[in-house]
Amino acid sequence: MQIYKVGGAVRDRLLGIAVTDIDRVVVGATTEEMLAKGFRPVGADFPVFLHPKTGEEYALARTERKSGRGYGGFTFHASPDVTLEEDLIRRDLTINAMAEDDEQNLTDPYHGQRDLEARILRHVSPAFAEDPLRVLRVARFAARYAELGFTVAPETLELMRQLSESGELQTLTAERSWKEISRALMENQPQVFVEVLRACGALKVLMPEVDALFGVPQPAIHHPEIDTGAHTLSVLQQAAHYKQPLTVRWACLLHDLGKGLTPEEQWPRHIAHESKGLKLIKAVNERFKAPRDCQELALLVGEYHTHGHRALELKASTLLELLQSFDVYRRPQRFEEFIAACEMDARGRKGLEERSYPQADYLRGAATAARSVAVQPLLEQGFKGPELGEAIKRERLKALKAYKEASS
After folding, report:
1. How far apart are CA 98 and CA 371, in angstroms?
2. Range 54-79 average pLDDT
3. Which residue, among 236, 238, 249, has the nearest Cα to 355 in the 3D structure?
4. 378 near 269, Cβ under 8 Å?
C-alpha cells in the first residue's frame, strides 16, 4: 500500500499558496485492507474512506470509463493493480494530475509542473471532453489563477468548445452547476470565469441571458465602456475588489439582463429595462436553483438599482416605497447588500471606478430615519389593525421628508 497527496494540495504547494484541502490516493490496496485499518467508507460511487483519527479523505486509485451522458455517466474501476499514473490520467488538468509522497518526491507523468511554470491550464488527455462539468471547472480555475498570469491552452479551449456544442452541458444538474458557479464568483477575478465561458461558447448555453448583453450598447455619457456585457464584467470585478458576499456578486452578474431585450432601434437607450429584466433574472435563478437569499437580492437589485443611483432625487414617498420593498425594518442586511450592489454598478464603469457614491450614505440615512419612528406612541393613541399600519406609514413619510429637507 502506497499513499500519495494528489491534485490541489500538490499544485498549490508548488505555487507557494497555502494548502487548505488535502486529497490522498491509495495505490495497491483493497477495500477490505482499508476497513481492516479502521478507515470508514463514505464513497457511494467509488471507494473513498475517512482516516480513523484525522477524518481526512483517502481514495483508492481508480480508472474510469464513459458509460453514459453527463457528469455522472462513468463506470469506475478500483483495484490494487491500478497504477498511480492510471489514476492521474483521468484528472482534468495537468496541474491537477501530480502526486507526491510524504517526502515530497514528485510524480508528474503529464508535465503539470512545466505547465505551472508556463502558467497554462491544459487538459491531461482527450478524455477531458467526456465530462461536461470540466468546462465550468476550467473556467473557475482560470478565475482563481488569473492574477498569477494563467491562461487556458488553445487546445483545451477547443475541447471546451466542442463540449459546449455537443449538448452535454444540458445534462449538468442545477446543483453541480451552482456549486461551480458560486465558487467561481467568489474568486478574486470572477469576471474571468464569465470571459472563459463566453470564449468557448458555454455562456450562450448556460446563461444565454448574460451572453446576450455583449454587443449591446449603452449611452456613452453614463457608460464610457458602452458595451453592456463589458460593463457587467466590470461590475463583477468591482464586487470582488471590494470583497462583496456571494449574494451581491450574483446580483451584480444579473442586474442588467433587461438590456438584452431592448430592440436595436431603441439602442443605446434601455427604457424600463429594470422591470423587463425580472423574468430573465427569475429564469436564471430557477435554472441553477440559486439559494433563496441570492434569488431575492438579484430580483430586488434588478428592479431597483436605478432608484439607488437616483436616491438623492427621489421623493420622500418613493423613498418610503423603496424601503418597504426591502423590508428594511426586519431585514436591514438585505438593504445594505442592495446599496453595495448599486455602488458596484456605479463603479463598474470605465474611468469611474474611484468616483465617490454619496447615494450609499444617503440611503442608509433614509433607512435610519424610517426605522426611528416609534410604534408605542401610536398604540397609546388607540391605533390598531390596518389603521395602525397607515399611521406608521404616515409617520415614516414625515420622518423621510424631514430627512430630505435636512440633507438638502
Report:
1. 57
2. 74
3. 238
4. no
pLDDT in tens, 120-129: 999 999 989 9
**Helix runs in 112-186, H state only:** 112-118, 133-145, 154-166, 174-185
**What CATH number matches the domain at 1-111, 3.40.50.1000, 3.40.140.10, 3.30.460.10, 3.20.20.140?**
3.30.460.10
CB 394 within 8 A of CB 310: no
In 3D space, the residue among 270, 198, 264, 275 whose CA is nearest the CA of residue 229 turns out to be 198
CA dist., res. 202 & res. 162, Å (int): 10
Per-residue confidence (pLDDT) for residue 310, from 0 to 100 = 97
Strands 151-152 and 120-121: parallel
Rounded CA Rg of the chain: 26
DSSP string, 294-345: HHHHHHHHHHHHHHHHTGGG--HHHHHHHHHHHTTTT-HHHHHHHHHHHHHH
3-class DSSP state of 115: helix
User: Cell numbers at residue 205, please?
Assistant: 448555453
